[in-house]
From TrEMBL, chain A:
<dbReference type="GO" id="GO:0000177">
    <property type="term" value="C:cytoplasmic exosome (RNase complex)"/>
</dbReference>
<comment type="subunit">
    <text>Component of the RNA exosome core complex (Exo-9), composed of EXOSC1, EXOSC2, EXOSC3, EXOSC4, EXOSC5, EXOSC6, EXOSC7, EXOSC8 and EXOSC9; within the complex interacts with EXOSC2, EXOSC7 and EXOSC9. The catalytically inactive RNA exosome core complex (Exo-9) associates with the catalytic subunit EXOSC10/RRP6. Exo-9 may associate with DIS3 to form the nucleolar exosome complex, or DIS3L to form the cytoplasmic exosome complex.</text>
</comment>
<keyword id="KW-0694">RNA-binding</keyword>
<keyword id="KW-0698">rRNA processing</keyword>
<keyword id="KW-0007">Acetylation</keyword>
<feature type="domain" description="Exoribonuclease phosphorolytic">
    <location>
        <begin position="155"/>
        <end position="219"/>
    </location>
</feature>
<dbReference type="GO" id="GO:0016075">
    <property type="term" value="P:rRNA catabolic process"/>
</dbReference>
<dbReference type="InterPro" id="IPR027408">
    <property type="entry name" value="PNPase/RNase_PH_dom_sf"/>
</dbReference>
<keyword id="KW-0963">Cytoplasm</keyword>
Automatic annotation (TrEMBL), chain B:
<keyword id="KW-0694">RNA-binding</keyword>
<dbReference type="GO" id="GO:0003723">
    <property type="term" value="F:RNA binding"/>
</dbReference>
<dbReference type="GO" id="GO:0005737">
    <property type="term" value="C:cytoplasm"/>
</dbReference>
<feature type="domain" description="Exosome complex component N-terminal">
    <location>
        <begin position="6"/>
        <end position="40"/>
    </location>
</feature>
<dbReference type="GO" id="GO:0006364">
    <property type="term" value="P:rRNA processing"/>
</dbReference>
<dbReference type="GO" id="GO:0000176">
    <property type="term" value="C:nuclear exosome (RNase complex)"/>
</dbReference>
<keyword id="KW-0597">Phosphoprotein</keyword>
<dbReference type="InterPro" id="IPR019495">
    <property type="entry name" value="EXOSC1_C"/>
</dbReference>
<feature type="domain" description="Exosome complex component CSL4 C-terminal">
    <location>
        <begin position="72"/>
        <end position="124"/>
    </location>
</feature>
């Protein structure tokens, strides 16, 4: 696309951010009283809603029961109005199934499932507005929702999508950047221990750049973890103030 | 009340040298980390080291464990074992209804659908089956039951309950209420 400079000479991106800058972050926990845990998250223009139920008895297929740990059931879906063109099939298509599987794998690494044998934890995430970095925003929203539900986790799970343009890693890609021929990599990290829960990329990248890109992703995730931490602590303070009276 | 320390999942609390891990925490490489969002609580329980745990304002879902006393509702009875439908499924086998005369138990004279029963978990069961419960103790059995007329019945003995309206007696395996729960 002529004229679309993903990274200008002065180091500014399409939306005016610097290469390592994250988008504006806004989050709220406990948005639904009826669910065990819920959270709403906005990263720039991408908006996601995550709801957690559980741990409860395994419903549906009895064959899914694991005698030693809980089963995590994730469902990712996009609202029909979330993209520029109305989405015909919000869930059940290949991409949503793959995304649900990735979310499941990510949270199985962080949630202490061995404390709840023979039970099930449901995590439902819905994208209300999609502007790039869908997976990362889902993971961040789901982390807040799981914390809100009081399900024990080893650590936060923070995710970020990074891309490589002109020898520079760009953190927290938006939709225009994702589509503009950028090799994008999504990373989900447990920040305290520096452990990677999920790393996903399906683009072409020279192996010399991989190290730098992963480093940039980890730095961005640690930045996300600081913001999530602030949100959680603030929510905890707000929740405890009325009971202290 | 002194302000308690807030913590989030992943926060390092202390090392195993200083404290024993309690609930809401986990061990990694000889250090104790928090696994919940809440307040840190250190308690001295008479052992050498204090027990450190993380508590929340609202308790999360607990799973029944072996030896836990649970309150359950009867939803169906069949000869043999049938799962009871509730938040967690459990089964009381015929031989676990009573401690004495196990082979002479008639399920219809012990429980009816709709009864609220106090039972004990004896096993988590294997892959296919549910929690195994027992009422084979004096303190376990039917706590609340409604008669065929619909009124709540009053226990008369360990095996009978009476309806206050029709004065009809019905058979149940009644739980002996602990003295502290009886109203004067």
């Amino acid at each position: 696309m002529a004229g679309l400079e993903l990274l200008s000479d002065q180091g500014y991106r399409l939306d005016g951010r610097k290469a390592t800058e994250l988008r504006k972050f806004q989050a709220r926990m406990g948005v639904f009283a009826q669910a065990d845990g819920s959270a709403y998250l906005e990263q720039g223009n991408t908006k996601a809603l995550a709801v957690v139920y559980g741990p409860h008895e395994v419903r549906g297929a009895r064959s899914r029961i694991r005698h030693d740990r809980a089963v995590i059931n994730c469902q990712y879906s996009m609202a029909t109005f979330s993209t520029a063109e109305r989405k015909r099939r919000p869930h059940g298509d290949r991409k949503s199934t793959e995304m649900s599987l990735h979310l499941k794998q990510t949270f199985e690494a962080a949630v202490m499932t061995q404390l709840y044998p023979r039970s099930q934890i449901d995590i439902y995430v819905k994208i209300l507005q999609s502007d790039g970095g869908n997976y990362s925003v889902c993971v961040n929203a789901a982390t807040l929702a799981v914390i809100d539900a009081g399900i024990p986790m080893r650590d936060y799970v923070c995710a970020c999508t990074v891309g490589f343009v002109d020898e520079t890693p760009l953190a927290d890609l938006c939709y225009a950047e994702e589509g503009g021929g950028v090799s994008s990599l999504a990373l989900a990290l447990l920040p305290r221990g520096g452990q990677i829960a999920l790393l996903q990329m399906d683009a072409r990248l020279h192996q010399d750049h991989l190290e730098a890109l992963i480093e940039a992703a980890m730095t961005a995730c640690k930045g996300v973890s600081k913001v999530l931490d602030q949100v959680v602590r603030q929510h905890l303070q707000e929740a405890s103030v009325p009971s202290a009276e | 009340m002194s302000p308690m320390k807030l913590c989030v999942p992943g926060d390092k609390l202390c090392s195993t040298v200083d404290c024993i891990p309690g609930t809401g925490v986990y061990l990694r490489h000889g250090c104790i980390y928090s696994s919940l969002t809440g307040y840190v609580l250190k308690k001295n329980e008479g052992e050498e080291l204090p027990v450190i745990s993380v508590v929340r304002e609202t308790e999360t879902q607990l799973l029944p464990d072996v030896g836990a006393i649970v309150t359950c509702k009867v939803t169906s009875i069949n000869p043999g074992s049938t799962p009871l439908k509730d938040r967690f499924r459990g089964t009381i086998r015929k031989e676990d209804v009573r401690a004495t005369e196990k082979d002479k138990v008639e399920t219809y004279k012990s429980f009816r659908p709709g009864d609220i029963v106090l039972a004990k978990v004896i096993s988590l069961g294997d892959v296919q089956s549910n929690y195994l419960l027992t009422t084979a103790e004096n303190e376990l059995g039917v706590v609340v039951a409604h008669s065929e007329a619909g009124a709540q019945m009053v226990p008369i003995s360990w095996c009978e309950m009476q309806c206050p309206q029709t004065h009809g007696k019905e058979f149940r395996k009644v739980a002996r209420v602990q003295p502290e729960f009886l109203q004067a």
